[in-house]
From TrEMBL:
<dbReference type="GO" id="GO:0004777">
    <property type="term" value="F:succinate-semialdehyde dehydrogenase (NAD+) activity"/>
</dbReference>
<dbReference type="Pfam" id="PF00171">
    <property type="entry name" value="Aldedh"/>
</dbReference>
<feature type="domain" description="Aldehyde dehydrogenase">
    <location>
        <begin position="28"/>
        <end position="490"/>
    </location>
</feature>
<dbReference type="InterPro" id="IPR016162">
    <property type="entry name" value="Ald_DH_N"/>
</dbReference>
<dbReference type="InterPro" id="IPR015590">
    <property type="entry name" value="Aldehyde_DH_dom"/>
</dbReference>
<feature type="active site">
    <location>
        <position position="267"/>
    </location>
</feature>
<keyword id="KW-0560">Oxidoreductase</keyword>
<dbReference type="InterPro" id="IPR016163">
    <property type="entry name" value="Ald_DH_C"/>
</dbReference>
<dbReference type="InterPro" id="IPR050740">
    <property type="entry name" value="Aldehyde_DH_Superfamily"/>
</dbReference>
<dbReference type="InterPro" id="IPR016161">
    <property type="entry name" value="Ald_DH/histidinol_DH"/>
</dbReference>
<dbReference type="InterPro" id="IPR010102">
    <property type="entry name" value="Succ_semiAld_DH"/>
</dbReference>
<protein>
    <submittedName>
        <fullName>NAD-dependent succinate-semialdehyde dehydrogenase</fullName>
    </submittedName>
</protein>
<comment type="similarity">
    <text>Belongs to the aldehyde dehydrogenase family.</text>
</comment>
<dbReference type="GO" id="GO:0009450">
    <property type="term" value="P:gamma-aminobutyric acid catabolic process"/>
</dbReference>
<dbReference type="InterPro" id="IPR029510">
    <property type="entry name" value="Ald_DH_CS_GLU"/>
</dbReference>
């Protein structure tokens, strides 16, 4: 996509002449300081756009706009909110190609993966449009004859959504969909690396008829994030914060939100084990690992981070995996032949290099790859490292890169123990055929999500979230709406009526 095409895209949607802006109270605005920061293409290093550097003052106004809009949005019939969300979905799908190309330019993933993400993003708008009409209450038998007990579910209020760079479209709708469906209003802060996808989605929401103030967007670079985050967590009008990102930042937001006792949804770091048992279909397991590990260049929170393989099939599995990974093409996401795009930035590349080097220092052997790619920039070779000890950094931190770290195990108990030996518990995967083993292992893994002979877990219909230090709450499914609703218990005493009179 050319810069001219990007400019036309924005000009058509919100008449800014191609200069992306923030969105507050139904108006497209620049930063108070008029400062902007660059958004770059990770494949080329080229600046593709500039975006406003907003801070605490603009964020405060966005919260105020959301609070004012909540008064009418919360009382709007659920079917009307649902109709608007469905219109937003239609607008997203109609702009699928442009949104996907825009995502590739700012995030780097292959175009076919970007198209899949846009459809995934649209699915949350459809799902929660339907769930909006199912925010059911309860009637509870009272403990006295004239007592009536009911429970209503009502929108929490103004919410804040802080989204990551690795899925810059889907994470917006996975938060905005249930928030708006429930009757909440929202202030959105996208990652500084990928604000353009969020801006485009908000522009489409405006086009779909989302009222002014219901959905607001503030942008800022890494230096602005602490101010924006502090306002969102400390402002008393914000009742809920939903964040997807690192556990380190999640802890900070949790501490800040404690001052006003906010509701929190936190989808944080992962360290997913991928277990291959001796009764697994090895070809299927290899295909599954390639999807789970090398998709988005390994930059997903549910990527396989530790590959545990039964010793009896260890060498055979590595041989099959090596043949398969050797076929992967590295390049620009806009090239149809590309399987693995660039890493998001230099710090990401540095971390991957360090994890491979650390594993080698501890006795592991690189089977394939192991170096920055000859394309330069932030490209890294699809890599396989074998005999990685459990003490290696990669076994205790997310690598977030296209590297599979393998370790053999001797029995089922050892595999489960190694898989659970982490403070994280977002996703886990295993390949096996024995039905009894399937039950034992799936119940023994300390993880919020488990894929059994299945490497792709994400869907709008299922609850997405983790345990331990991988976060709080669930997104997607019917449970995703509950995170944006409060329960109100109502107890009423009814005066007894007369039994006399005509019949």
């Amino acid at each position: 996509m050319s810069l001219a095409t990007v400019a036309v895209l924005f000009e058509e949607w919100h008449e800014t002449g191609g200069a992306p802006r923030g969105y507050v109270g139904g108006a497209w605005i620049d930063a108070d300081s008029a400062e902007r920061f660059d958004v770059t293409d990770p494949a080329t290093g080229e600046t593709i756009a500039t975006v406003p550097r907003m801070g605490r003052a603009e964020t405060c106004r966005a919260v105020r706009a959301a609070e004012e809009a909540w008064v009418s949005w919360r009382t709007r019939p659920a079917r009307e909110r649902a109709a608007i969300l469905l219109d937003w979905r239609d607008c997203v799908l109609a702009a699928e190609d442009s949104l996907a190309e825009l995502m590739v330019r700012e995030q780097g993933k292959p175009l076919r993966e970007a198209v899949t993400e846009i459809r995934y993003a649209a699915s949350f708008l459809e799902w929660f449009a339907e769930e909006a009409k199912r925010a059911y209450g309860e009637t509870i038998p009272g403990d006295a004859a004239q007592t009536r007990v009911t429970v209503q579910r009502q929108p929490i209020g103004v919410g804040a959504a802080i989204t990551p760079w690795n899925f810059p479209a889907a994470m917006v709708t996975r938060k905005a969909g249930p928030a708006l469906a429930a009757g909440c209003t929202l202030v959105l802060k996208p990652a500084e690396q990928t604000p353009l996808s969020a801006i485009a989605l908000v522009a489409l929401a405006e086009q779909a008829g989302v009222p002014a103030g219901v959905l607001n967007l503030v942008t800022g670079d890494a230096a602005d994030a602490p101010e924006i985050g502090a306002e969102l967590t400390e402002n008393e009008d914000v009742r809920k914060v939903s964040f997807t990102g690192s556990t380190e930042v999640g802890r900070l937001l949790m501490r800040q939100a404690a001052t006003t006792v906010k509701s929190l949804s936190l989808e944080l770091g992962g360290n997913a084990p991928f277990i291959v048992f001796d009764d697994a279909d090895l070809v299927a397991a290899v295909d599954g690992l390639v999807q789970c590990k090398y998709r988005n260049a390994g930059q997903t929170c549910i990527s396989a981070n530790r590959v545990l393989v039964a010793r009896s099939v260890y060498d055979q599995f590595i041989a099959l995996l090596t043949d398969r990974v050797r076929e992967l093409n590295v390049g620009s996401g806009l090239d149809d032949a590309t399987d693995v795009g660039p890493l998001i930035d230099r710090p990401a590349l540095t971390k991957v290099i360090e994890h491979v080097a650390d594993a080698e220092r501890r006795g592991a052997k690189v089977v394939l790859g192991g170096q920055p790619h000859e394309l330069g920039g932030t490209f890294f070779q699809p890599t396989i490292v074998r005999d990685v000890p459990a003490t290696a950094q990669a076994f205790h931190e997310e690598t977030f890169g296209p590297v599979a770290f393998l370790h053999p195990f001797d029995d089922e108990d050892e595999a489960i123990r190694l898989a659970n030996d982490t403070p994280y518990g977002l996703a886990a995967y295993f390949y096996a055929q024995d039905v009894d083993r399937v039950w034992r292992v799936s119940e023994g893994l300390e993880s919020g999500m488990v894929g059994i002979n299945q490497p792709m877990l994400s869907t709008a219909t299922a609850p997405f979230g983790g345990v331990k230090q991988s976060g709080l709450g669930r997104e997607g499914s019917r449970h995703g709406l509950d995170d944006w609703l409060e329960m109100k218990y109502i107890c009423q005493v009814i005066k007894p009526g007369s039994t006399d009179g005509d019949r």
